[in-house]
Every structure is written in C-alpha cells, then in structure tokens.
Amino acid sequence: MRGVKRFLIGFVFPVSVFLSSLGLLGTASVAFWIGFQDLFLPVSLAAQFLGLIYFLAGIFGLAGCASLASLAMPLSRNGWRKNRAKPPTWQIAFAFGGAVAGCYAAATITWYSLGYRTVITWLFAALATTCLFLACIMLPAFSAAWKYIAGSLKGLGISAALLALAAQFWYVSVYTPENTPAAVNTSFSIGAMTGKGASRVVQVDLSMEDTGSVPAVAVGSIIVVGGIRGTGGDATILKVLQPYSNGAWLFPGNVVLFDFLVSVNEPGVDALNFQLTFSFARTSWLTLGRLRTSVPYVKGCLRSSSDRQSQWYVVESHLYSFAQGPKVLYSDYCKYPKNPTTKNIPFVKVGFAGVRNGRLVAIPTQSSRPGLGIITDYQNETILLN
Description:
By secondary structure, the protein is α+β, with helices and mostly antiparallel strands. The chain has seven helices and 13 strands.
C-alpha cells in the first residue's frame, strides 16, 4: 500500500496536474483567440458582448497557466497549514480562477457544438473535464489561501463579477433587441382601374412598415393574386410576384410603398384575393454574407428561370462558427408549381442548413437560440372591385 501511495503521489498526481495544465493552456488559447476576433472584429453587438466574456476568460486562463508554472509548493491545504507559511496567494488565486475560466470556456463550446460537430464536442468535453479536475485540485489551496489574499485582489474579483452581471443585465433589459416585439405591418389597397368587363387593369398598392426597434432584412417574399367569381368562389391565379428582393432592408418607422398592376382578363371576377408570405429577420439576429449559389428550384416546381433556390452564407460570431461550422440560409421561390391547384399554389420557403464537404446537411432546430431567428408573416386579404 505504501508503494502504491508513493507511486500515486510521486508520479500519477504530478502527471495528471501537468496534463490538466496543458488542457487549460489549449482551452485558454482557443478562448482568447475567439474572444479577440469577436471583440475587435464583431459582426453584431451580441457577438461583441460574448467576445468580451471569452476574451477575459482566455486572459484568466493564460494567467492561470503562468501561475501554475510558478508554483513550487505542494498543492495541498494541509501542507501550508503544517508549515505555517504564507502561501503564494496571487499565484493560487490566478491558478484557481484560470481553471474555472477554462472550464467555462470549454463547457460552452461543448454545449454550442452539441449536435453539430461531433469531434469538437468530445474534444472540448474532455478539456472541460481536465479544467474541472484542475479546479478541484486547486480548491483546497484556494480555500487555505483566502485569508491571505489581499483586499485589493478580492475587491478586483468581486468588482469584475459585478461588472459582468451589470453588463449582462444592461444587454438583456435595456438594449433588448431580442425582447422587443418584431413585426412588419402590411396592407393592400386598390387604386385606379381601367377597362371594363373581362378586360381590366387594376393598380394595387402594398405598404410595408417595420414596427420593431431595429432594421429587418428580407429573406423571402411572394404575393399570389387571385381573381374570385361570386361569393365563396375559387380564386384563379392572376399574378405572382416577389415584392421585396432577398437581402433588402426595412428600417424602423419607414413605410415602403410597392405598386403593381394586375390584369383581369376573365369575366365574372368581382374581387381580388391577395396571399402574402414575407419572411424576415432583425439585423441584430442575422447577418447575411456572400451569395453561395443560385440554382433552379425543381422540387415540385417547373424548371424555370423564376423558380430558384438561393443560398447565402450566414455571418455569425467566431464562437458559433468554430463550434458549429459554416451555415447557409436558403430561400426557395416557386412561382410555377407542377400541377397547380387551389392548395398547391406558388410559395416561398426559407430555412437553414450546414455545409459539410460542399453539401448541405440538416442542422438541429433553430429555435434553440435567437441567432438564427426567422419570422414569417402570412396575410390573406380580399378586396372587392367596384
């Protein structure tokens, strides 16, 4: 038993601490690099806020590694009490804080990559475990050295924690881009009409207003105009168009007017039915990058220049890009469906996908976080023709 104990204390324990220190070094370096990019090359305020936290976690992690290297005493609470010597308080404090920061950074990457990238998930789960092991080893030493830690250091740590809480409270409660209602109000009206009977041309006015607090970016829109004969009659499709191009912005409080003409060349049409599908995201949620591809959309549609699938890379924080890989937003526009019926009408469909080896792959549900939030507004309105 004594030989086993000596082996554990003299070899296994130092090797475990050394490997854990290497794990902390790797985690802190990744956190520092991700935080640096998101802090100084931000894509949004949310990404910059998260980058600040990761940047600080990386600094604390690297400081913890340096402190571990400078410690020459046994990492044991009883050892310092036995020798009654003042422990190296600064080194112990930074070593323990760095281990906690490394555990936070690795665990966060593990959580974000779960379901996206298996290798990243398992790798950082292992790194989080090593950092947690190191923090547990340092906890007795930190507890023993607490009374020796200078008041200025305690105040610095408490002030940093309170500042982080205050910043998070400000972002969630004051900035509130994700907490304010998001909506785009739309309305149709009929203007001038020329002609009579079965040969008429009607001017239609569409107004759109962003009622949110931040700009909205359009990612998919379609209007299907139908002519209705009599009360409760089926609508015959008269016109299909895209009112707003993908990637265009709507600004808060601004009303955008869109006018178009509808030819009514069938007798008995006494009302127009408008079916609008408009998908958008707030710019605090989504930033579109370069166009990846634009190809004919043929799933249930005719091969036409109007029926297309367009894909844009999603610009995200470096943390999400590292943990989850590249993503694209696709927008399917089908103006000419095969075998059109009253239920199989032209449509637009928007979604997200990952990119693996040049191909699109399914990703977990986007409802897990607001960073990929798409809002789709459906409107069905009927207006009588005078």
